[in-house]
Specification:
The complex is a heterodimer of chains A (282) and B (473).
Chain A: H1 2-26, H2 30-58, H3 73-95, H4 101-118, H5 138-167, H6 173-177, H7 181-214, H8 222-243, H9 249-266
Chain B: H1 7-26, H2 34-43, H3 45-53, H4 63-82, H5 95-98, H6 103-111, E1 115-121, H7 125-138, E2 142-146, E3 152-158, H8 162-186, E4 188-195, E5 199-201, E6 207-218, E7 225-236, E8 241-249, E9 254-256, E10 259-279, E11 282-286, E12 291-293, E13 299-307, E14 310-312, E15 318-320, E16 329-336, E17 339-340, E18 344-347, E19 354-357, E20 363-366, E21 371-388, H9 392-411, E22 415-423, E23 429-437, H10 441-456, E24 460-462
Antiparallel strand pairs in B: 1-23, 1-24, 2-3, 3-22, 4-21, 5-6, 6-7, 7-8, 9-10, 10-11, 10-21, 12-13, 13-16, 14-15, 16-17, 16-18, 18-19, 19-20, 22-23
The chains are: A mainly alpha (282), B alpha+beta (473).
Chain lengths: 282, 473
C-alpha cells in the first residue's frame, strides 16, 4: 500500500518535472530548469523508497529472500524508469544542459506510467530458475545500459532538432537554448560509449547464468539473440564514429536504430522468448 | 584482401550478422520449435523448401552463418593486427611528428591539430621547460623529453593504458569465438527424461542416471512452482562404479568429471501410484487397475487411466494437451453387482465436473456425481539436461578480457600534448603546444585551455592565432 502511494507520488513528481522541462523549451526562465532537477531528484527519492518497501514485502515470501523484485513487468519497468531518471539527474547535475530534460525525461515518465497503468504490481514468488543471485545482477546491469541508451536517444533527438534549427533561415529561440551540435554529438557518444561495456557485461552475465542453470552459455534464445543484435548495432556505431569519422545526423540515425533494437529486446521479444517470458506476465 | 582489412568490411559484417540473427528469431528453428518448423513446411510448401535449402530452420548452425562468424574473426585479426594504428595517439610519437626535428616543421604540424596554442614566456629556456614539465606532471601527465636540436620537445601522456583497450577487446572477441568452436567440437548436450524411481542411460557418456525421488512444490493457491528437485545417483554402466549422488535443483547441478547434470524440467508420465475417491464421506484408495468394493455397497470401482492435462478433443474424446500436471483427471470404471458401467472421468481441480465415456470412446457431460476425486499421487518424470562445455572457461576468459578492454577503451580518457620550446634570447622562450584526446577535441578542450592558461600564468603572452576548439566535422 505504502509502496504504491510512494510510487504514485514519484510518478506525479516526474510528470511535473516533465511539464517544467517542456515549459522551459518555450519560456526562457532558468528557474524552470532548476525546478526540473529538484523535482526529479525528489521523485527519485520517493521512487527509491517505494522500491525499498516493495523489496521488503517481496522478501516476505521465503523463496524471494535476498532477491530484487524485478521478476515482473512492473518491477522491470519501475527499475528502468528509475535508472533512466538517475542517469539523467547525474548527467544534468554535472553538465547543466538544462534543456535535456525535455528529450530524456519522457522515456522515464513513459516507463513509470506503463508500470503504473498497464502492469500488475502484485508480488509473486520467484519460479525456481529465477531463484539465483544472478537475478540481482544480470537484468539490473542490462537495464542500466538500456537507461543510458535511452538518454543517448533523447540527446540524439535534441541534436536533430538543433541541426534543423541551425540550417533553417529563421532559427527559433530553441536554437539558442539547445547546446551546440558538437556538444550534443559528444554527449551522445559519451553515453553510448559509457553504456557499451555495461551492455556487454550484462550479456556475458546472462550467458554465465544460463550455463549455471542449463549447462550452456549461449542458446540463441530470442531474447539473448536480440541483445546481441543490439550489441552489433552499437558496435557498428562505435566503429563508424571512431574510425570512419561519422558525426552528427548519421550517427544519430544509427543510435536510433540501436535504441529501436533495445525497445524490441525489452518489450517485443517477450512474445518470442519462453525463457525470458516472465517479463510479459506476473 | 584490402577490403577485409578495412573498417568498412568490419561494420558491414556486424550488420549482416545482426540481420541474419534477427531472421533466426522470426523463422521457427528446428532445435527449439520443431513443431513450428513442421507447421511452416505444411502451410508454405514452396517457401518451406526454399528456406530449408538455405538452412533457415537451423540458421545458427548453418554453414553460411558459421562462415560469417569465422569471417568476422578473420576480419578482426587482419583489421586489428595487420593494419596500421588507426589513430595518431597510438604510436609513442605521432608519425608526422617523428619525421623531423626541425622547429618549423614540428611547429607547423602542431598548429594543424584541433587543439593548439603558442606564445612567449619571459623566462630562460631551462625555467620555461621546468615550468611546463611541472604543470603537466601536476595534472597527472607522464612527461617524456624527446631529443631535439632546437631546444626542448616535451611529449606528455595521460591514461596511456587506453591505447590497449581496442586491441584487448578485439582479440578477446576472437577468443570467445574460439571458445564456441571448442564447445562445438568437444562439448555435448543431451536431454534425459527419467521417470522417478527409474533410470536412463546417456548416449554420449557411459553413464546410467537414477532418479530416486522427484519433488515439486507449488506456491499456495497457485500453479507456479516454488521448487522442483531430483535426488539422483550416477553410475558408470560399464564398470558399475558410483560416480556421484546429489539432490539437484535448478541453478544447482551435479558436477562430474566429463559433464554436469542439471535439473531442467519435469512432466507427468500419465501414470499414477494411487488415486483417492471420496464417496459420501468414505475415502477409497485405489492403485492402478485395482478393483475395490466401496464399503457398505455392492459397487466396485477401478481406476485405470490418467491424463495430466485433461481436455476434450474436437471429436469429443479425452486427451491431454501437454505433459504438464495442470488439469489432472482419472478414469474410473464402476461395477454394479459385477456388471460394468460406462467409465467416468473425474477431474482433480473441478469436483463438480465429470464426463461419461460412451462405448464408442466419445465423452458426454455427466451430472454432478455423488463422488469425487479427492487426491492423486502421480508419477512424474524428471527432465535432466546433461552437458559438457569445455569451451566455457575460454569464453569466460575471453569475456573478462573483453570487458577489461572495453573499460580501458571507453572509461579511460587518453590525452597527449606535444610542447616545443626554444630560447628567444637569454630570458625569453617561445613555446608551441598541441593536444590530442582519444575522445575528440571537445572532451579535452576545457583542460587544454587550463593548461594554456597555466603555461602563461602571468609570465608571458599567448599569440592570437591559438586554437582550442575544433571545427565541427
Amino acid at each position: 500500500m505504502l509502496e504504491t502511494i510512494f510510487f504514485k507520488i514519484s510518478f506525479g513528481l516526474y510528470l511535473l518535472a516533465l511539464v517544467f522541462s517542456g515549459a522551459y523549451l518555450f519560456i526562457r526562465r532558468e528557474v524552470y530548469s532548476r525546478w526540473v532537477w529538484r523535482l526529479y531528484g525528489l521523485g527519485l527519492s520517493f521512487h527509491l523508497t517505494s522500491f525499498v518497501w516493495r523489496t521488503k514485502n517481496f522478501w516476505e515470501i521465503a523463496e524471494n529472500r535476498f532477491y530484487l523484485p524485478i521478476n515482473t513487468f512492473f518491477g522491470a519497468l519501475s527499475y528502468l524508469a528509475f535508472a533512466i531518471g538517475i542517469i539523467f539527474w547525474l548527467v544534468e547535475g554535472r553538465h547543466r544542459l538544462n534543456i535535456l530534460g525535455a528529450f530524456v525525461l519522457p522515456w522515464s515518465v513513459l516507463a513509470a506510467g506503463a508500470a503504473m497503468f498497464f502492469a500488475d504490481p502484485s508480488l509473486s514468488g520467484l519460479v525456481p530458475s529465477l531463484q539465483s543471485y544472478w537475478i540481482n545482477i544480470h537484468p539490473l546491469v542490462l537495464m542500466t545500459a538500456y537507461a543510458f541508451l535511452a538518454n543517448a536517444f533523447g540527446v540524439g533527438v535534441a541534436l536533430l532538432i538543433q541541426e534543423h534549427q541551425v540550417k533553417s533561415r529563421k532559427p527559433s529561440e530553441l536554437c539558442y537554448r539547445l547546446p551546440a551540435i558538437e556538444e550534443l554529438d559528444q554527449l551522445q557518444y559519451r553515453l553510448i560509449a559509457g553504456s557499451f561495456p555495461i551492455l556487454s557485461i550484462g550479456i556475458v552475465m546472462g550467458g554465465i547464468w544460463a550455463y549455471n542453470a542449463w549447462g550452456r552459455f549461449w542458446g540463441w534464445d530470442a531474447k539473448e539473440t536480440w541483445a546481441l543484435i543490439t550489441w552489433f548495432v552499437y558496435v557498428g556505431y562505435l566503429h563508424l564514429r571512431l574510425f570512419s569519422g561519422w558525426r552528427g545526423r548519421k550517427t544519430v540515425y544509427l543510435a536510433m536504430l540501436g535504441f529501436a533494437c533495445v525497445i524490441f529486446t525489452f518489450f517485443g521479444v517477450n512474445y518470442l522468448s519462453e525463457l525470458h517470458g516472465y517479463l510479459s506476465g506476473g | 584482401m584490402s577490403f577485409f582489412r578495412s573498417v568498412r568490411a568490419n561494420v558491414l559484417l556486424f550488420f549482416v550478422l545482426a540481420a541474419a540473427s534477427a531472421l533466426g528469431t522470426l523463422v521457427p528453428q528446428m532445435g527449439e520449435n520443431p513443431a513450428g518448423v513442421e507447421k511452416f513446411l505444411q502451410t508454405y510448401p514452396l517457401w518451406g523448401r526454399v528456406l530449408d535449402f538455405l538452412w533457415f530452420f537451423n540458421l545458427y548452425h548453418s554453414p553460411w552463418f558459421l562462415g560469417l562468424l569465422g569471417l568476422m574473426a578473420f576480419n578482426i585479426v587482419v583489421c586489428k593486427l595487420w593494419n596500421a594504428p588507426p589513430d595518431p595517439g597510438l604510436s609513442e610519437i605521432a608519425p608526422e611528428l617523428s619525421r623531423g626535428e626541425d622547429w618549423n616543421f614540428l611547429g607547423a604540424e602542431l598548429r594543424k591539430k584541433s587543439l593548439n596554442g603558442e606564445g612567449f614566456l619571459e623566462l630562460p629556456l631551462e625555467s620555461a621547460r621546468s615550468r611546463v614539465r611541472g604543470l603537466l606532471l601536476q595534472r597527472g601527465f607522464r612527461v617524456q623529453e624527446e631529443p631535439s636540436s632546437f631546444g626542448t620537445f616535451l611529449v606528455s601522456t595521460k591514461h596511456p593504458g587506453q591505447r590497449w583497450g581496442s586491441y584487448i577487446s578485439h582479440i578477446s572477441l576472437v577468443v570467445i569465438l574460439l571458445g564456441a568452436l571448442v564447445k562445438g567440437l568437444f562439448g555435448f548436450e543431451e536431454f534425459l527424461p527419467v521417470v522417478e524411481g527409474g533410470s536412463q542411460n546417456l548416449r554420449q557418456r557411459p553413464w546410467e542416471v537414477f532418479v530416486d525421488r522427484f519433488e515439486v512444490e507449488y506456491y499456495p493457491q497457485s500453479k507456479v512452482p516454488r521448487l522442483f528437485a531430483s535426488q539422483i545417483r550416477v553410475y558408470d554402466h560399464t564398470t558399475r562404479k558410483h560416480l556421484g549422488s546429489k539432490r539437484i535443483l535448478v541453478n544447482d547441478p551435479l558436477a562430474l568429471s566429463g559433464g554436469r547434470i542439471y535439473q531442467a524440467s519435469w512432466g507427468a508420465t500419465g501414470r499414477f501410484r494411487r488415486a483417492r475417491l471420496l464417496v459420501q464421506g468414505v475415502e477409497v484408495d485405489l492403485e492402478p487397475h485395482q478393483k475395490v468394493r466401496i464399503p457398505s455397497t455392492s459397487i466396485e470401482v477401478q481406476a485405470d487411466r490418467m491424463l495430466p492435462q485433461f481436455a476434450v478433443s474436437a471429436d469429443q474424446r479425452p486427451q491431454t494437451e501437454s505433459l504438464e500436471y495442470d488439469n489432472p483427471a482419472v478414469r474410473f470404471v464402476f461395477y454394479y453387482r459385477g456388471r460394468r458401467m460406462d467409465p467416468v472421468w473425474l477431474l482433480l481441480h473441478w469436483p463438480r465436473v465429470s464426463f461419461r465415456e460412451k462405448p464408442d470412446g466419445t465423452l458426454a457431460h455427466a451430472p454432478a456425481p455423488p463422488f469425487l476425486l479427492a487426491a492423486l499421487d502421480p508419477v512424474f518424470f524428471s527432465g535432466l539436461q546433461v552437458a559438457q562445455d569445455p569451451g566455457f572457461p575460454i569464453i569466460v576468459t575471453g569475456s573478462a578480457t573483453m570487458l577489461l578492454g572495453l573499460s580501458l577503451l571507453f572509461y579511460l580518457h587518453r590525452r597527449r600534448t606535444w610542447c616545443l620550446l626554444r630560447a628567444e634570447g637569454p630570458k625569453k622562450s617561445r613555446w608551441v603546444l598541441g593536444g590530442w584526446s582519444s575522445r575528440g577535441p571537445v572532451a579535452f578542450r576545457k583542460e587544454f585551455s587550463q593548461i594554456l592558461e597555466a603555461i602563461e600564468g602571468g609570465a608571458g603572452e599567448r599569440l592570437p592565432h591559438s586554437r582550442e576548439v575544433s571545427s565541427y566535422a
